[in-house]
Specification:
single chain, 12% strand, alpha/beta
C-alpha cells in the first residue's frame, strides 16, 4: 500500500511552509471553495490522487453530505491504487462509491487506438453520471487542472463534451502548486507521484489484454518495493522499458540483477532502461514525431 510514500510522510499541515506560500494557497483555496459551493451538490471522479483528493476534500468541507466520491474499479486501475483510494476517502470522510467495470469487454478499447482515452472516458462518464443522478447529485467534477490542458489528453475532450465540471481549472490552479495545497489541507497523499491507468504503458496499436496489464502492475509494484518513488514500466511486447526520474537511475543500476530476474519471471525477455528518464505521456511522443 504505497509503502515507500508512507516512509516519506511527515507531520501534515502548514508547519514549515513559507508565509508567502500559505497566503497564496489561501487565496487559491478561497476561490476553489466559492466555485464548489456554488454547485450545491457534486460527485467527484475519485482516483485517490492529489488532484481528485483536493477537490473531494474541499467539496466535503463545503457541501457536507451533498458531496460524494466515485471510483471506477476497472482492469486498468491497479489493486494498490484502489486500496489507496479507500484510505484517502476515509481520511476525508466523504461517501465513497466504487463501481466495478471491465474495459476489456470493449473491442474499441482493446484495439488501443490513439483516441483510446476519448472512447474510454465516454463510457466512464456515463457510469458516473448514472450513480450521481441516483444520489440526487446535479454536478460531476474531475480533477483536471490548468496544466493538464497542455498535454495530449483526448480523454479531456470527452469530458468537455459531457457537461463535466473542472473546479481546479476554473480556480486557475495548476499542477506545480497541487502538493502544497494538498499538504495545507492535511491530505496524507500530498507528496504522492501522479498515477495514470495501466493501459497508458502499452504503445498505441498494440492490443490491450489482461496478461499485459498484470505484468505491468506487478513490475511497477516491484520497483516501488525497491524504493523507486516515481516510475513507469512501458510494455513493448517481450521488452520492458523502465522509466524513472533521472536522480533514481543509479538505483536501477544498483538493483539491476534483481530487477532483471523479477521481470523475466513476469514474462519479459528483455529489460531496458530509458536514459531520458520518466516523463508523463512518453507514449504520445510517436504521435508528435509523426505530426499527427
Amino acid at each position: 500500500m504505497w509503502e515507500v510514500f508512507e516512509l516519506q510522510w511527515d507531520k501534515i499541515g502548514y508547519q514549515g511552509m513559507e508565509l508567502s506560500d500559505i497566503n497564496g494557497i489561501k487565496g487559491k483555496l478561497g476561490k476553489l471553495k466559492e466555485i464548489i459551493l456554488a454547485e450545491k451538490s457534486i460527485a467527484i471522479a475519485f482516483s485517490g490522487g492529489i488532484d481528485s483528493s483536493v477537490v473531494a476534500k474541499v467539496a466535503k468541507n463545503e457541501l457536507k453530505n451533498k458531496a460524494i466520491a466515485i471510483t471506477i474499479d476497472s482492469d486498468v486501475f491497479s489493486n494498490k491504487e484502489l486500496k489507496f483510494s479507500k484510505v484517502i476517502a476515509g481520511e476525508i470522510g466523504i461517501k465513497h462509491i466504487i463501481i466495478k467495470s471491465s474495459k476489456l469487454e470493449d473491442p474499441v478499447f482493446v484495439n488501443n487506438s490513439e483516441n483510446r482515452c476519448y472512447h474510454c472516458k465516454g463510457r466512464e462518464i456515463e457510469l458516473i453520471w448514472q450513480v450521481a443522478k441516483e444520489h440526487g447529485i446535479k454536478s460531476v467534477a474531475y480533477g483536471v487542472n490548468i496544466s493538464d490542458k497542455k498535454e495530449h489528453r483526448p480523454g479531456i475532450k470527452a469530458l468537455m463534451e459531457s457537461n463535466i465540471f473542472f473546479p481546479l481549472e476554473k480556480a486557475g490552479i495548476g499542477k506545480p502548486v497541487m502538493p502544497q495545497i494538498a499538504r495545507y489541507l492535511g491530505l496524507s497523499n500530498y507528496n504522492m507521484p501522479s498515477t495514470t491507468c495501466l493501459a497508458s504503458r502499452i504503445p498505441y496499436g498494440n492490443k490491450i489484454n489482461k496478461e499485459k496489464l498484470i505484468q505491468i502492475e506487478k513490475a511497477e509494484s516491484f520497483l516501488i518495493v525497491l524504493g523507486l518513488s516515481d516510475s513507469r514500466v512501458r510494455h513493448h511486447g517481450d521488452i520492458a522499458r523502465i522509466e524513472v526520474s533521472k536522480n533514481e537511475i543509479e538505483k536501477i543500476i544498483l538493483n539491476k540483477i534483481s530487477i532483471v530476474n523479477k521481470f523475466k519471471e513476469l514474462g519479459f525477455q528483455y529489460v531496458t532502461l530509458d536514459l531520458q528518464g520518466y516523463r508523463s505521456g512518453s507514449m504520445d511522443e510517436v504521435i508528435k514525431n509523426s505530426g499527427a
